């Protein structure tokens, strides 16, 4: 079972486009009907797959007889105004799929969503790719690895065949060695995989410890999902090449089903996490559904940015945060706006939160700029407070921290000052307060009293610390402070005024 809104969103990722209005997107889909040309009126279901029907009018009539809410047609034809009017009146959703996507792939996605949704939400794992790797290995008579688009190993055959050092290193490291990947990039192997379904043989390279390879792309429509690698010194005979292509097609179906399952898992998890960090009247029930403790929790906030790649960084971070099914991960995550939020079981010691963020960011591309914040410890009902603290920590200016990760436990003072600055900046500051007059004095006399005063206040009167911040000699700071104390509009002995001046200076100087 899946809601219509989710079905439309998922199908659109595989080249499908929505035409005409959709019925209420909260409607639940429970069944699938496939057109049977021998018995065209025998099938009924919520989703109608118009297999073998390219004419939209005919597909619409067949779907109406099948009492379907969603019509899926594989064609390049576009609906005419009359058909659009009929869709408007009936409220049916018409999904047109690019003919390059096979019906087997479309059916795999639809059946996985509609018929297996309940099992997936309960935590059912992905398809057994290892068994499939063994099957392909037996058919071609050679060791096999199945890898994703980034050359990470998803599965490998277990048959005791002779393997070269690169094969064993790839399995042990769970990804293709960087030197070998670079070699394949130079040879144009990945360019070939991106544009062709034909397997390609790679001659041995003894200096790299590499035996021969034959590789085939794993594709869903135009999208490259991964690749199947066969360790073989010589090119495969045509019969084995055909078997490899068939195996790659089966891998694509498995990956589609796995992705659909993961999508459903993420949807349920995301909705529950958002409910908790926004504040839920039934927080204990939501925590129970997520399968994590109700106490000693922290909210982690993370953003990832890259020039020229809008949203790509944060989407990749969310994918890594939710890789694996709920029962195999310690945290529960959601993508809310441009931020990944994770609820992590973590007591008074924030070390597990740091480790979790380090593991996540270690797998992201080096060019991404990542900032993160860790909220304080909370229970199920106080997670909104931990979320606010994580947001505030993430928004803190960069400091001496190596990884741009701030934790509320260690940064509470900076968070508190930031809160005071935020509150103070919402109103109108006095136009003739001491800070404004000091700024004006600096502008007229080319002095550096404003940064000196700010550094001195932040250092709590420590001349050496202030001098280190400014990059000047302590005597310079001492001389400037002496001159400022002589100014009648500055009262540096009043504790309350010093605090207010520090906040005002932070607002004025950014």
Mean pLDDT: 83
Q: Assembly type of the shown chains? A: single chain
State the end-to-end distance. Answer: 52 Å
Strand order of the largest sheet: 2-7-6-5-4
Query: Could you name the CATH topology of the largest domain?
Result: Alpha-Beta Plaits
Any idea what the radius of gyration is? 30 Å
Classify the beta-strand content into a percent band. 15-25%
In terms of per-residue confidence, which ranges show pLDDT below 50 for 5 or more consecutive residues? 118-127
**Largest β sheet strand count, sense and barrel closure:** 5 strands, mixed
The portion of residues assigned to helices is 40-55%
CATH class of the largest domain: Alpha Beta
Which architecture name of the largest domain does CATH use?
2-Layer Sandwich
Structural class: alpha+beta
Tell me the overall shape.
globular
Task: Tell me about this structure.
This protein has four domains: 2-117, HprK N-terminal domain-like (Udp-n-acetylmuramoylalanyl-d-glutamate--2,6- Diaminopimelate Ligase, Chain: A, domain 1, 3-Layer(aba) Sandwich), CATH 3.40.1390.20; 126-258, GAF domain (Beta-Lactamase, 2-Layer Sandwich), CATH 3.30.450.40; 281-424, Alpha-Beta Plaits, CATH 3.30.70; 429-509, no CATH class. It is built from 19 helices and 17 strands. Residues 118-127 have low confidence and may be disordered. The protein has helices at 4-12, 56-65, 81-90, 103-121, 129-140, 165-173, 178-186, 189-195, 238-278, 283-290, 312-321, 351-362, 383-394, 408-425, 434-445, 449-458, 463-470, 474-485, 495-509; strands at residues 2-3, 16-19, 28-29, 32-34, 47-49, 70-74, 93-97, 144-148, 153-156, 200-202, 213-220, 223-231, 297-305, 332-336, 339-345, 369-374, 405-407. The two termini are 52 Å apart. The chain is of the alpha+beta class and 510 residues long. Helix 4 crosses helix 9 (238-278), helix 16 packs across helix 17 and helix 17 packs across helix 18 (474-485). A five-stranded mixed sheet has the order 2-7-6-5-4, with helices on both faces. The protein has a five-stranded antiparallel sheet with strand order 9-8-12-11-10, sandwiched between helices. Helix 3 (81-90) links the parallel strand 6 and strand 7.
